[in-house]
Design a protein that fits this description.
The complex is a heterodimer of chains A (111) and B (341). By secondary structure, chain A is an all-alpha fold. Chain A has helices at residues 21-35, 43-56, 60-72, 77-97, 99-109. The chains are: A mainly alpha (111), B alpha/beta (341).
C-alpha cells in the first residue's frame, strides 16, 4: 500500500504546472517574492512565520522545508520552537475565545 | 587502481558533472595568483569533529618533517608574491615545529594565519600531555591572525558538532585571546570566527550571522571578535560518512548542485591559494589534498615543494571534481568565508 506525504514527493511540487500552467507560474512567482526575499520582514522572520503556519496547518512537506529554511536563514532551535509555541497558543486561544459564544448562548438559555 | 584510491573515490561524490556545469556557465577558472601558501602540518587533533574533512583526531600521527618545514620557509623567502602563510591541521599547534614555523614566516614579513580550534589551549597534548596555555601570548607576540571554528554562539549546535564540553572550553579560550588583545578595537590583532552548519544545510547569510554572534557573545560572555566566516560543509570523508549513514547524502548533493552560483564559483579560493600536505605535495586546496587529487604541472606531473616552480604552478589547470559544488553553492564558501554577496 502506498503512503501519503512521501518526502520525495516535495520535489514534484513544480509539477503542479502540468495543468493550468499559467496559474502555477503565477503562484510560484508570488511564492518566491513573498518568502524568498528580504523585504520589510527579513527572510529569517518570514521562514519562522512559515514554520508556524506549517504546524498549524499540519503540512509535513512544509515542516521539513521550513525547518531547513529556518536553519539556512540563521534561526536556532530555541527560536524555531518559540515560533511553534506561538502557533500552538494561537490555536488554543482561538478555541478558547469561542467559549465567549458559548457563554453568550448559555446566558440566553439560563438567564 | 589501488584499494587506497578506490577508498578515496568512495569518500567523495561523483556523477554531478561539476566541470560541465562550469563550462555551461561560461566559466574557465584558471589560477590568478599564489597569494597564500596553506600548509597542513599535521592531522593530529585534540578533537574529533563530525564535519571534519581531514578526519583529524587524537589518534592521527601524520606530521610534516622539520626539513619540509624548512623547505616551506625557503619557498616563502624566495617568493615575495606569496604574502600569506595559512597554517592548518588537525590542530597545528600540536606539531613540535609549530612555533619555529610561525616565527620563521613572521621573520620574513609574511602575514601568518593559524587555524586554531580554541580548545587546544586548554586540552593537554594528546601525545605528550604538554599544556598549550602559552598560545594567546605567543599569537599576540607574533601578530598572528587567529581563525577559530565556533559552529554557533550557543552550546547546543557547537557541542553537537565538536563534542561535549567544547562550547564552554571555546568560550574560555576566546576570553584568553581577548585578554591578550585579540578582537579588541585598535589592537590590530585579528580574531576571526568560523561558522559552519551542524548538518546538511547551507549556511545563513554571513553578515546577519556575524551580527548575531557579536551581539550574543558580547552580551552573554563578554567575548569580542572581528569577523565571522561562513563555510559550507564539504561532502567528503567524515561528513560524507555521516551523510551516508543518515541517508542524506543524495539530498545534500542535490541541494549543493541546485544552489550552484556562478558568482561564487568565480571567487573560489583555489585561484589564489595552494595547499601543501605534510609530505610536501601540492594541491589546489585542502579538500583536494584530503582526496589525494594532486595539483599537476607540465606533462601531468604531480607538483611538490621539492621542485617548486612558481610559474609552472600558476599555469596549472585546477583539478575540479564534484565536491567542488561545496564551494560554489549559495553565497559560496572558502577558507575566508562567503565568496559572493
Amino acid at each position: 500500500m502506498s503512503n501519503y506525504y512521501e518526502s520525495e514527493d516535495l520535489k514534484k511540487f513544480a509539477a503542479i504546472g502540468k495543468h493550468a500552467k499559467s496559474l502555477a507560474d503565477d503562484f510560484f512567482r508570488y511564492y518566491a517574492n513573498a518568502t524568498g526575499t528580504d523585504g520589510a520582514l527579513t527572510k529569517r522572520e518570514k521562514a519562522l512565520i512559515a514554520l508556524a503556519v506549517s504546524h498549524t496547518l499540519k503540512c509535513p512537506y512544509c515542516i521539513d522545508a521550513y525547518t531547513t529554511q529556518c536553519l539556512e536563514t540563521g534561526s536556532n532551535p530555541e527560536q524555531m520552537m518559540e515560533a511553534v509555541h506561538v502557533a500552538a497558543v494561537m490555536q488554543a486561544g482561538i478555541t478558547l475565545v469561542h467559549s465567549v459564544q458559548m457563554q453568550n448562548h448559555l446566558e440566553k438559555l439560563v438567564p | 587502481m589501488s584499494d587506497a584510491v578506490v577508498l578515496k573515490l568512495a569518500r567523495r561524490p561523483a556523477g554531478y558533472e561539476f566541470t560541465a556545469r562550469l563550462e555551461a556557465s561560461g566559466l574557465a577558472l584558471r589560477p590568478l595568483a599564489i597569494e597564500t601558501l596553506q600548509v597542513n602540518i599535521t592531522k593530529l587533533c585534540n578533537q574529533v569533529c563530525r564535519h571534519c574533512h581531514v578526519d583529524a583526531s587524537p589518534a592521527r600521527r601524520e606530521m610534516m618533517s622539520a626539513e619540509r618545514i624548512d623547505k616551506c620557509i625557503e619557498i616563502l623567502a624566495r617568493h615575495p608574491d606569496i604574502a600569506n602563510l595559512d597554517i592548518t591541521g588537525g590542530a597545528p599547534e600540536l606539531h613540535p615545529e609549530f612555533r619555529r614555523f610561525v616565527e620563521g614566516a613572521v621573520g620574513l614579513g609574511k602575514h601568518v594565519m593559524v587555524r586554531h580550534n580554541l580548545t587546544v589551549q586548554l586540552d593537554p597534548h594528546p601525545m605528550t600531555g604538554a599544556s598549550q596555555e602559552y598560545l594567546p601570548e605567543f599569537f599576540a607576540h607574533n601578530r598572528v591572525e587567529v581563525i577559530s571554528s565556533l559552529p554557533y554562539h550557543q552550546e547546543y549546535f557547537t557541542d553537537a558538532q565538536r563534542g561535549g564540553g567544547v562550547f564552554a572550553k571555546s568560550i574560555e579560550a576566546l576570553k584568553r585571546l581577548n585578554a591578550a588583545g585579540y578582537g579588541r578595537d585598535g589592537s590590530g590583532l585579528a580574531l576571526n570566527l568560523v561558522y559552519n552548519p551542524v548538518g546538511p544545510y547551507l549556511p545563513a547569510a554571513q553578515a546577519g550571522l556575524e551580527a548575531d554572534y557579536k551581539r550574543e557573545l558580547a552580551s552573554k560572555f563578554g567575548v569580542v571578535f572581528n569577523r565571522l566566516f561562513t563555510i559550507t560543509n564539504m561532502p567528503i570523508n567524515r561528513f560524507r560518512l555521516h551523510l551516508e549513514k543518515s541517508g542524506l547524502s543524495e539530498a545534500y548533493m542535490e541541494k549543493l548542485v541546485s544552489a550552484f552560483n556562478p558568482a561564487a564559483a568565480d571567487g573560489v579560493m583555489c585561484r589564489s591559494l595552494i595547499s601543501v600536505s605534510h609530505d610536501g605535495r601540492i594541491f589546489d586546496c585542502d579538500f583536494n589534498q584530503m582526496l589525494d587529487l594532486d595539483a599537476r604541472g607540465k606533462g601531468g606531473r604531480a607538483l611538490s615543494i621539492f621542485d617548486f616552480d612558481f610559474e609552472e604552478i600558476l599555469r596549472r589547470r585546477i583539478e575540479f571534481a564534484d565536491h567542488c559544488y561545496g564551494c560554489t553553492a549559495g553565497a559560496g564558501s572558502s577558507c575566508g568565508g562567503a565568496t559572493a554577496a
